[in-house]
């Protein structure tokens, strides 16, 4: 693990570190949630049930469109390219004319 000399960092560096940390935490939590659901589904199948049978259909896997664009100013903000455009998308289009610089991967 890296040691950070936080008292030697600029405000911009600290804010970037905070955003990166928040994004890493959200990503970690989502991975752990998916692992937990997979483990529970496997245990239910092992016992001859589906997870929805045991929960009365309360647990459904969400099909979410993966993000296609990421806000360059705030990497925690993404958009799938479907539905209503977030404000940051409108701002980028107004400034740059397109979203090419925001494409993920």
Summarize the structure.
This protein has 105 residues and is mainly alpha-helical.
Key terms:
single chain; 49% helix; 3 helices
Explain what the structure shows.
The chain is flat. Strand 1 and strand 2 (78-79) form a beta hairpin. With 105 residues, the chain is mainly α. The mean pLDDT is 88. The protein has a two-stranded antiparallel ribbon. It has two domains: 7-62; 64-105, no CATH class. The longest helix has 36 residues, at 11-46. It has helices at residues 11-46, 51-55, 87-96; strands at 69-70, 78-79. 49% of the residues lie in helices and 4% in strands. The chain contains three helices and two strands.
Q: How does the overall form come out from the CA principal axes?
A: flat
| Major pleated sheet | 2 strands, antiparallel
Strand order of the largest sheet: 1-2
Oligomer: single chain
Helix count from the secondary structure assignment? 3
**Mean pLDDT score:** 88
Residue stretches low in confidence (pLDDT < 50, at least 5 long) are none
Q: How far apart are the termini?
A: 26 Å
Proportion of strand residues: under 5%
Give helix % range.
Answer: 40-55%
Tell me the domain tally: 2
**Helix/strand structural class:** mainly alpha
What is the H/E string?
HHEEH
Radius of gyration, in Å, reads 20 Å
Would you report the number of β strands? 2
């Amino acid at each position: 693990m890296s040691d950070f000399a936080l008292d030697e960092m600029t405000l911009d560096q600290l804010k970037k570190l905070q955003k990166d940390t928040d994004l890493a935490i959200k990503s970690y939590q989502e991975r752990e949630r998916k692992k937990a659901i997979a483990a529970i589904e496997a245990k239910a199948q092992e016992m001859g049930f589906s997870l929805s049978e045991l929960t009365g259909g309360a647990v459904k896997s969400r099909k979410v469109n993966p993000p296609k664009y990421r806000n360059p100013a705030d990497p925690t903000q993404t958009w799938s390219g479907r539905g209503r455009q977030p404000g940051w998308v409108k701002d980028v289009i107004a400034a740059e004319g397109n979203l090419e610089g925001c494409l993920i991967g």
